[in-house]
Structure formats: C-alpha cells, structure tokens
Amino acid sequence: MIVVFKKDTDAAYIGSFEKYIKSLGFDVCVLGGNTAEIKGDTALLDTEKIKSFGMVESVTRLSSPYKKVSREYRKEDTVIKVGDVLIGKDLTVMAGPCSVESEKQIIEIASAAKKAGASVIRGGAFKPRTSPYSFQGLGKDGIKYLVKAKQETGLPVVSEIISKDYLDEYADIDILQVGARNMQNYDLLKALGKTDKPVLLKRGMGASIEELLMSAEYILSEGNGKVILCERGIKTFETMTRNTLDVSAVALLKKLTHLPVVADPSHACGMSSLVKPLSLAAVSAGASGIMLEVHTNPEYAFSDGAQAVKPEELKEITDALKNIWQFVK
Ligand code: PEP
Ligand code: MN
After folding, report:
1. What separation in Å is there between the alpha carbon of 256 and the centre of ligand 2?
2. Nearest Cα residue to atom 9 of ligand 1
3. Beta-bridge mates of residue 2
C-alpha cells in the first residue's frame, strides 16, 4: 500500500505515522519524496483509517483488500459438491419458480425442471419483495414443500434465507441463497460463515465486483469456504430490461477468484424471451452454470411471471448450454 503525504509534510509527522503503522504490526518503508510503502498483509488495513491522517494526500492499494477468495490465495478452482452435482466443475442448471406457491405447484415444476435438464431446484419461501404489499412467500410451509420436491425428484434444493433467525428452518435445504438485497447484510453473512452449508451469494444490484468479493470474504473469513457467486444483473441507465447482465463481471470474477461463478439471467433481464441468449452469454463468458426461473403457468405466477420460462423452453436452454459447455469447460 502506497501512502503519499501532502507537500511540505515534515519528517516528524511521517515519523509518528510510521511508528503508529508499525504498532499495528506492519512494516513501513519511507521512500522519500513524501511517499511511504506499507508492507505486510494490507488486506487487514482499512484505507479510510489511513486517509483520516490529516497530512495524507492519497492511499493506493497494491494488492486486493480481499484475501481468501482471491486466486492468489488458491490457484485451483473451488468445486462444491451438492448431492451428485459438482458446482464449479460440472455445468449446473438451477431452476424452479421464483416463489413456492403450493406443494402441488413446486412438485410439478421441480419434476418438469428435472426432465428438462435441471440439476438443482430453486424456490423462494421467504421472499424479500420491493413492496410490502406483494406476496411475501409461504415462509416455513414453503420450505416444507420445497423439501418434498427434493424428496420427490432426488435433486438438491436452493432457497433464499433473509435472516439468520431462520437458520434452523433451513436444515434440509442444500444451498442457502443470499439475495441481492442482502448481499451486504454482514450479520447474515457472518452467521452463514459459521455453518458448513454451501451459500449462493448474489451480487447486489448496485454493488461493485469488489464489494461482492468482500461480501464473500465475510463468509470465508468465518470458516465456510463453500461460496458460489451469482451475477444477477445490475442497475444501469437502461430501462428496457429489468437490470443489465454484467457479462464482464462473470469473466473478470473467473480471473479474480477461485470460487464458482454462476449467472441468473431471469432477474437480469426480467423477460422470458431473453433468458436463453443471456444464459448462453454467461456460460460462454465462463459461468459454471445458471440459475433461472421456470413456471408451468407463468401468467398466474405469484411473483416474477414475466421472466419465467416454461419447462419446454428450459429444455431448449439446457440442450444449448450442453453444446457450448464442451468448448468452454
Ligand atoms: C430470487 O432469486 O428470487 C431473487 C429475489 O433474486 P435477487 O435477490 O437476485 O433479486
Ligand atoms: Mn424472482
């Protein structure tokens, strides 16, 4: 980390700065010309803290603020085994409705999704909705029905957890999803870091790639290395799509981190007709798979019907993905 002091900062001031940084356990090398280099594991150092020194002009990191999630920390791809699925190695298609609406609905959709090539079933039970008047999910019953769909299909299941208070309810859920709105709920991230369950961490709609990696770092720093990152579209100036799928983020994340990366084309575009091309784009860019919304009756879905594909479209998508997977894996 390079620290540049303001012009005319006297040597005594730099000396006391050096002493303070050394007291925190770092080495400091004063380079002359009002510049100092802080050496050691500077991921543990907050740049804001350094900037609060009145005579500091600028602070530049030479290494990333995240550590355990980085490629430097671990060169090989992390592979997460969920049931028979190897996420990060095998092409993974997580599919299901936005919300679990009834026992019959989730079992019907899960069975159709399995036939269409899905390897993990999704379904929201506790729903974080933008409006408090929108359907909030079936809660505990939703989880119960999703677990029935798991037993029925033999496929693992993923569902969003919105509070650490509900952790006990998720005992039979295979992957805990942290939604975009909760990506920086650090209390939740820390609690999930203390479990040994795989976590699907979605990128916040206004979060940078570095912020996503820092959120993952929260989970890894507590001991849980089973994190899957999910690009689900970010807010841009564009109004014709719900969000904008950041394909560059998928490609860049593959370079920056060893963690598996998947994409959610459904929430990225908000319309079912774009789900196939976005799925292909994401996997071509390096995603290990996708998570998408599927419904047997999208017009009557309790939430996100416009972006749900039908099982027959899911089949087309998984077939096309398998074709490109052989070239990109
Ligand atoms: C979801 O997966 O249904 C969901 C609410 O996603 P996001 O957190 O990405 O909006
Ligand atoms: Mn949804």
Report:
1. 28
2. 180
3. 37, 60
3 state DSSP class of 307: helix
Instruction: Determine the residue of 120, 202, 243 to mutate for testing ligand 1's pocket, defined as the one with the most ligand atoms within 8 A of the Cβ atom.
Output: 202
* Whole-structure pTM value: 0.94
User: CA–CA distance from 178 to each of 162, 186, 188 (Å)?
Assistant: 7, 11, 9
Q: For ligand 1, which residues put their CB under 6 angstroms from it? A: 98, 124, 160, 179-181, 202, 232, 264, 267
Q: Residue 106 is encoded by which pair of tokens? A: 């989730």
pLDDT (tens digit per residue) in 124-141:
999 999 999 999 999 999
Closest CA to 77 of 253, 204, 314, 300: 253
State pLDDT tens for residues 53-106.
999 999 999 989 999 999 999 999 999 999 999 999 999 999 999 999 999 999
Atom of ligand 1 nearest to the CA of 182: 8
